[in-house]
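Hey,
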Amino acid sequence: MAKFQKGQSGNPSGKRPGTLNKRSQFIRLLEDNAENLINKLIELALEGDVHALRFCLERFLPKATTNQYIQLDLQGLDIQLSKNLPMIGKKIIDATASGALSVQDSNQFMHLINAQKGFLAQEELAKRLDEIESHQKTGCFFDELE
């Protein structure tokens, strides 16, 4: 004979309110002893425990990231003008060649320049299309070509 009926919960009243799961209980224990644990970890690391030292370095020191702010002197070149984009590209290449800019950062800058070039080209095409449509409506498009 089965201990539980099919389709019937083994605990129909459910978990009691306020009951913590094992993870929450463990976290609470760690929080209560956090200062002592950290002090012991640092003590072990200072005594030469390689694993404790590695843990300290991984947790306490910020990771080196490539996300950094880079200043590039564009000498007043406006990125909104497509005629300036080749000169800006040259400045990026020069900065990379001199070592002031990493190849990865240079690639990201060039990607941005190419995106800007695309945006400016789309804007120019939209302007030209608007002009053509307005001339078509007025019928004076061909008169201006002569």
